[in-house]
Amino acid sequence: MARRYTAAIRQITKENKQVLDMCGIVGIINTDRKLIDGSYIREAIRIQRDRGNGLGGGFAVYGAYPENKNKYAFHIMYEGDRHNPVIPMVEDFLRNKTKIYQAEQIPVYPNDRIPLGPYFKRYFLKPIADFFYPDETEEDYIVRLVMAINKMEGAFVISSGKNLGVFKGVGYPEDIADYFGIEDYKGYMWVAHNRFPTNTPGWWGGAHPFTILDKAVVHNGEITSYGTNMRWLEMYGYYCLLQTDTEVITYIYDKLSRKDNLSKADACYVMAPSLWEEIDRTNNEKMKYLRQIYGSAIVNGPFGIVLTHTDGAIILNDRNKLRPVVCARTGNTYYSSSEECSIRLLSPEVDEIWSPRGGEPVIVDLAEEVAA
Amino acid sequence: MKETKNQMKNNWKILSPFHPQFDMVRCDYENGCKICVHECSFGEISLTPIKDKRGEVVYRPGANLTACNACQRCVKMCPQNAIHIVSQPMHTSHSYWTPYHVNNIWRQARHEGGVLLVGTGATGPQKRYFDYMMFDACQVTNPSIDPLREPMEIRRYLGTKPDSYGGKMGPQLELEVPIMFGAMSFGAVNLRVHKAAARATQAVGTYWNTGEGGFHKELRKYGKNTIVQVASGRFGVNESYLKSAAAVEIKIGQGAKPGIGGHLPGEKVSEAVSKTRMIPLGSDALSPAPHHDIYSIEDLRQLIFAIKEATEYTVPVSVKISAVNNVAPIASGIARAGADIITIDGFRGGSGATPLQIRQNTGIPIELAISAADRRLTEEGIRNTVSIVASGGFQTSSDILKAICLGADAVYVGTPVLIALGCNACQRCFTGKCAYGITTNKPELAERIDVDEATQALKNLLHAWGEEIKELMGSMGISAIEALRGNRDRLRGVGLNEEELKILGIKHAGA
Questions:
Q1: Any CB–CB contact under 8 A between B205 and chain A?
Q2: Does pTM top 0.95 for this prediction?
Q3: Residue A372 covered by a domain
Q4: In contact, B306 and B291? CB cutoff 8 Å
Q5: Does the structure show a pLDDT above 80 at A203?
Q6: What domains, with CATH codes, occur in chain B?
Q7: How many domains does chain A have?
Q8: Residues of B in contact with A222 (CB under 8 A)
Q9: Predicted ipTM?
């Protein structure tokens, strides 16, 4: 069984197929950084069962590792089992490039619905500044490491942010939740994803969320601009090896917000810009400028995404609003979901509930972190 | 007696491949109609005296069998519908020595004794890759977009763009449709054609290119929609010329004749042409093959910056090259030399006059050239610094969109512009006798073009192709054309081999 499963992964990654999804998403964001455990989001995504087909589910939790919050938490998925020869290669690579404080197997609880999965390990590490290229930031360095590991056959970096944990795999999301025991993790921000992959069979690396550094994306949609976006990103050292739409969005946002220092609103604007007609009418030079420069970063096709980072979340729809996204607020907790039912389950009474318009981002900023 | 025989021997004519045939029952010759004779500017039809039933001499039109190339002008103008063009019955039964080859050798040996000239683009059997690429449309998992009900954007900006926010934006050309009118010089075409191109592009919001023959004074008011060309002949180039337009293009090569300069036969150099080009009346205007001040990429850089200095960095500078095997490194060099736009002209590109052998046998297809150049610039991380304009052989709006998917920012079309004005691609532009009044400077022929009608025709063409592009984009689920540039995932090859797929950067259909 294990061998067959590994072969399937290899085949998919080698064929370089683009994975397309139509899915259900849920996000819970507490702006006061109050921790809640994973059982809530498990229930919220469970009732959107119709939006998935059991070929992928995943969770991202911010605030999962408070005791290691200043170190990068690398979740790495290895094909096959713990004897995979790529594991010592990756670990040698990491030991040479970073200082590893802690390395452990991610605990899993195989059950009758998910009897077997790949081998997951997590590493808490800090980069070694001596190895940075001139002018390279710490974050660029981490991105470079992630890209290098992803290029190794059979190893995939599932997440690489500080205080962030990502758990994902093939199965319905509630089964994935049980497999990883996500009730044991607590966080102030949760996102979950229920996947309905259509064009290729699901595989563990292809489930959502996708992350780079502290940014995680869950996504419902299919991106028609993939080819353009991918080639543009390659110019800046981002290689889309997982071949999914979500990866592309994650990298675009990372490039825009971290490398080019765009504000969150501007970064969203680049991905879903206003019409030229509107730009002409309002005579907005900045908007025109942004759209001219970042033409290749426009994300076309239907999508609804929840993009989370250490200090907040962004909820964005495509310009034509071809996918559902509902947002709500109860006190200091924000919710976003593909369907209202998930929000009503978590919070039957809400202070506000609305459907964001196509291309208009909802930006949630968390309160400043209180120094301990 | 002996002499006459010899004369007869030497006077046999070289038959043209087509000739008009007259339906004498319909023909109105008895009443003196000779429209066909006037309409045929090539001298194929002349009047022959015959005696009619009453014994009076009347003049009947007849074919001379020497000059017809099936431009169909006489057919279209005959009020009695009495003419049709037939292809010459078989010249020879030999399957290898076809009439085409035999005739060409005769023409060289017996008439001209020189290089064979032709007009329009290559006619060879080389593969047209556009036909082997299909668009990938949306179904279920991804809704297609209805261009009648949703906004669909096809505006493009050409010019240097910075890599990231805060960088300096170079001067830009704003195109409301990703189609511009390619370089056709004044001289090669007449002023009416230029005027129609200028008016149509101004109305639609795109650009036309003057070609290398200067920019007529009368048209300078359309400068905002004009790209002026600096070619190796430097015809009509001076400071006010450079400053009169929205962009300047340095012409290194042309798809129809890679490696050689422009040809304007002296027959076409009328007074207006001679003034605009600043050359003597009736003299051949033969541009040198290379620019005499560009023998390397460094020299090109100097010319680019000389033009930028002259125009005070207010307009983008384009460099036009013909598509050759080495196009990718050349494009990279041009980008690094400071050009804002690279124009690549495929071997199917049109021409008013080009040596036959050059046209048929040099250059590479535009599809492969665009893909190679776009990939190289992306790999080098300098794709933002230049825009790529493709040209040469676009027959339909779908060809244009396929070129954009392969990495072009916009395209030039040339031959379609002329066809919109009546051209039938009869390949005799170099004679200066165009029966439709397009590639001629003879006033009596040029006046066959009505500028208002021609303008409307070109506006219609741009509009129609723009709408078709929107339809195609909608079916692919794309609402902004930026998201399609270089988007090879939206194309699939049908019947292409592995090597071709690799160069084009696309997958085979079904994969």
A1: no
A2: no
A3: no
A4: no
A5: no
A6: 13-114 (3.30.70.20), 129-508 (3.20.20.70)
A7: 1
A8: 141-142, 477
A9: 0.86
